[in-house]
């Protein structure tokens, strides 16, 4: 039997990058997947890619910073699949390393809304359904910047640290209700969000000295995500797993 056979998953930011990779990987393992994204066209393209390969998927329009949009997206997913066993909070935004004095209030509020408040909104919309079913898995995507300083700008680093804290708190509050909550902290991953600096020769040279000696791929994250949302990780709670080629551990 496939590892996610008969389960349904909602993935925010599912139209590209890490979200798209998870959607495809989860569908390969039997999950019915809702690709939730603000870019409806790209979300439909991913859903079509999955269904054309024999999987089950729908596209769901969502603005993760808007509570009404979040509630509607969750309800659309439940209408299609009857329940949500897996939630992956993957939608995020970067601040281009803007330090505090260079961060406008507008940029700060935007990054906080997308990277942190969205997890509160989406999780709160999904958790009551999971609790009613007595079981569920929440996976939050943070960053290596959530485990140290210097991995991003002021807003990005602060929000990604917040994701780690939110993950631990959700696990402490709802683990006894059958809800597992964990996070993944990606390192430098070859996705559109980081393409503008991951191709830099200096960056690549620096990475060559690290244990893995390469930039990560979205598939690396999807494989780790698959394990954490599967029943194989049933005794793993409140963990933030670095998937970064060893970068954080040797800094």
UniProtKB/TrEMBL annotation:
Primary enzyme class: oxidoreductase
Pfam families reported for this sequence: adh_short_C2 (PF13561)
Entry annotated with the keyword Oxidoreductase: yes
Entry EC number(s): 1.1.1.100
Record's keyword terms, sorted: Oxidoreductase
MF terms (GO), sorted A to Z: 3-oxoacyl-[acyl-carrier-protein] reductase (NADPH) activity
Family under the similarity heading: Belongs to the short-chain dehydrogenases/reductases (SDR) family.
Name the UniProt record assigns to this protein: 3-oxoacyl-[acyl-carrier protein] reductase
Species for this entry: Azospirillum rugosum
């Amino acid at each position: 039997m496939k590892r996610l056979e008969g389960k349904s998953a909602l993935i925010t930011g599912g139209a590209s990058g890490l979200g798209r990779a998870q959607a495809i990987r989860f569908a390969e393992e039997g999950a019915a997947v809702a690709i939730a994204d603000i870019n409806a066209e790209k979300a439909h393209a991913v859903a079509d890619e999955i269904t054309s390969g024999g999987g089950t998927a729908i596209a769901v329009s969502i603005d993760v910073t808007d509570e009404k949009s979040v509630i509607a997206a969750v309800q659309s997913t439940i209408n299609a699949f009857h329940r949500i066993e897996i939630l992956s909070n993957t939608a995020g935004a970067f601040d281009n390393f803007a330090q505090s004095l260079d961060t406008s209030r507008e940029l700060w509020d935007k990054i906080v809304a997308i990277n942190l408040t969205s997890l509160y909104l989406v999780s709160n919309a999904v958790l009551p359904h999971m609790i009613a079913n007595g079981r569920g898995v929440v996976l939050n995507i943070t960053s290596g910047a959530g485990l140290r300083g210097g991995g991003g700008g002021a807003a990005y680093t602060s929000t990604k640290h917040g994701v780690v804290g939110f993950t631990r708190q959700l696990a402490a509050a709802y683990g006894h209700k059958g809800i597992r909550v964990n996070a993944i902290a990606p390192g430098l991953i070859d996705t559109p969000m980081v393409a503008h600096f991951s191709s830099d020769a200096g960056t690549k040279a620096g990475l060559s000295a690290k244990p893995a000696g390469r930039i990560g791929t979205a598939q690396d994250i999807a494989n780790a995500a698959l394990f954490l949302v599967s029943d194989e990780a049933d005794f793993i709670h409140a963990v933030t797993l670095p998937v970064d080629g060893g970068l954080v551990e040797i800094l």
